[in-house]
Amino acid sequence: MGSTTLTYLDPAEVTAWLPEGAAQPRVEIAGRLCILAAKIRRAFPLAHPEEYLSIQNDAGKEIGLLRSLDGIEPATRATLEEELDRRYFSPRISRIDGLEQQAGLWRFRVQTQRGPCEFFVRNWRDSAHEMGSGRWQIVAVDGQKYDIENLEKFDERSQGLLDQVF
After folding, report:
1. DSSP run (H or E) holding 13
2. What are the DUF1854 domain coordinates in residue numbering (predicted)?
3. Which of 9, 51, 156, 161 sits at 20 to 30 Å (Cα–Cα) from 33?
């Protein structure tokens, strides 16, 4: 087995921007290299979402870790935050307006922080995961993830509807 060495990046040496027409940011590490289509990933997306950010090349090979975005130049910070938001966006469900079974799928009609939404779930046991006490993540058939931050804070009607799938 080979050993893996972590490389921590100096925030002052990292510059990132989104070139016109590009889908992924370009990241330059001063004096070392330029990653033309960088991937930015959270090492611990649930436990420490603002810490330990992995900078990877387009093949997914880690170039280095940023301990946080502290000390990053503002334009670079904005680019990295936009990329993280795009990659990790999970609508937060605040209320369930409707839940019914259709052709072997559960059809959810919900309210999120970005407005009303509708999605389908195939198999509840495989698609819903308790992430902590009262916190759930639901994966729709299209792969989009939805979060319930605290099931106990749901209104009575939403809780009653969810009882159908539990």
Report:
1. none
2. 41-164
3. 51
* Region label for 16, one of left (φ > 0), alpha (ψ between -120 and 50) or beta (otherwise): beta
- For residue 120, report the phi and psi dihedrals to the nearest 5 degrees: -120, 145
Average pLDDT per consecutive 10 residues, the chain (166 residues; last block may be shorter) = 77 96 94 94 88 95 96 96 90 96 94 94 92 90 91 94 90
Q: CB pairs under 8 A, 24+ apart, for 11-15?
A: 11/66, 11/69, 11/70, 11/71, 11/72, 12/71, 14/55, 14/66, 14/72, 14/76, 15/73, 15/76
**Nearest to 161, CA basis, from 85, 108, 124:** 108
Q: Which of 29, 62, 87 is the last residue of a domain?
A: 87
Q: What is the pLDDT of residue 3?
A: 54
- Answering whether pTM is above 0.70, one says no
Q: Which candidate, 31, 33, 48, 38, places its Cα nearest to that of 17?
A: 38
Which amino acid would we find at residue 49? P
Same domain, 101 and 154: yes
